[in-house]
Design goal:
This protein has helices at residues 3-28, 30-49, 92-98, 112-117, 136-151, 175-200, 203-209, 214-240, 247-271, 275-295, 303-309, 313-324, 331-359; strands at 58-65, 83-89, 104-108, 123-129, 156-158, 163-164. With 361 residues, it is of the alpha/beta class. β4, α5 (136-151) and β5 (156-158) form a beta-alpha-beta unit.
């Protein structure tokens, strides 16, 4: 075994020894268990709120009408409380782009009115977002029934494999922010306390005079935090797997988010002395890192703010997650986001190691 390999294995062994102890100790803490339960509730709630439910009775439809039929001129209120909202477009491509927050896209054939007048059963070509692809039979039945009720005679909506995979710049939900929030919540709730407990019990000094280096201590704490963050990531992907179009990119985006969140949480742990101060600092961290990432893609945002927000690492991570839900990832933007995420993470980890080394003097 070469010296480099042996040194690498020694680092991993020492980091794991520190991290495995922290994993067990954190789980024994009542606050940790409470934060895990709260996180599960938050992620499940966001999943529930982003999923269509039986009492959501407004059907938003993007319509491309090839023959300028009378369909959109009809009353849109149905007897069972359902109602249609039609958004007309001039091309199939425009319809697919407009479907960001629409449940359904419809192409009305040029002979639609003639088929109705002849007493036939016209067919509408339906389009749904990629995320709903497992519900095709139910959605075909539902929309066929609703259009038949609207028109007063049988109409068939045929979806088949007409799945719209969004373009990278088209949002279809706020799901990409859920993973950012969940990972930051878990990291800031647990990781700073791993560092503060070492300082309060004065075991940090013992660690630093042991064979463990400052880098190994940081790596061990990061491994402990990563264990719990994997719980939040696993829950997120278990609930939102249907959104993913590129799994490799989704996992890379999650890894970048996890590493940056752990680095920020470790920085809190080494610079802050008490849990009360951590709670005080959570608001500015959310205001500076999370809120801008949420609004960065807002079309009405001031140009200068949009430019500033685009250089935040959290904005880069949200965009990477969105690319993993999209038809493709623009290479130049992906590389910029990856550089921002990894560069910011490396910088924060370096600051944490520097601070611990200074404490050892």
């Amino acid at each position: 075994m070469s010296a480099i390999t042996r040194n690498f294995m020694d680092n991993i062994y020492m980091a794991w020894a520190i991290g495995s102890k922290d994993i067990v100790d954190a789980l024994k803490n009542k606050n940790t268990r409470t934060n895990i339960a709260l996180l599960v509730f938050i992620v499940v709630f966001f999943y529930w709120s982003s999923t269509p439910r039986p009492f959501d009775k407004k059907i938003d439809v993007a319509i491309y009408d090839e023959g300028h039929s009378s369909l959109t001129d009809l009353p849109t209120q149905l007897g069972d409380g359902y109602s249609f909202r039609f958004y007309e477009v001039s091309s199939l491509q425009e319809m697919e782009r407009m479907m960001g927050y629409k449940q359904l896209g419809i192409v009305v054939p040029s002979d639609f009115d003639r088929t109705l007048e002849a007493g036939g059963e016209p067919e509408l070509s339906g389009y749904i977002l990629w995320v709903h692809r497992t519900r095709v039979p139910d959605l075909e039945l539902k929309y066929s029934d609703k259009f038949s009720e609207l028109l007063g005679q049988p109409v068939r909506v045929e979806i088949g494999e007409n799945f719209v995979i969004p373009q990278p710049d088209v949002e279809t939900s706020t799901v990409q922010f859920t993973i950012l929030f969940a990972v930051f919540w878990m990291a800031i709730s647990i990781v700073p306390h791993l560092m503060m407990e070492e300082k309060q019990t004065r075991t940090m000094e013992a660690l630093l005079v042991s064979p463990a280096s400052a880098g190994q201590v940081v790596m061990g704490k990061a491994l402990a935090g990563a264990f719990y963050i994997l719980l939040s990531g696993g829950l997120f992907f278990a609930l939102h797997w249907a959104y993913v179009t590129h799994w490799g990119l989704a996992l890379l985006a999650f890894l970048c988010t996890a590493l940056f969140s752990i680095a920020v949480a470790l920085a809190l742990g080494v610079f802050i002395k008490s849990p009360q101060q951590v709670r005080l600092w959570m608001f500015p961290i959310v205001a500076v890192l999370l809120v801008p990432a949420f609004f960065a893609s807002e079309p009405n945002l001031a140009v200068n703010l949009k430019a500033i927000f685009s250089w935040l690492p959290t904005t880069a991570m949200v965009e990477m997650v969105q690319f993993s839900f999209s038809s493709h990832a623009p290479l130049s933007q992906l590389l910029k986001n990856l550089a921002l995420a990894l560069g910011s993470t490396a910088l924060v980890f370096a600051i944490v190691i520097w601070k611990i080394q200074r404490a050892d003097r």
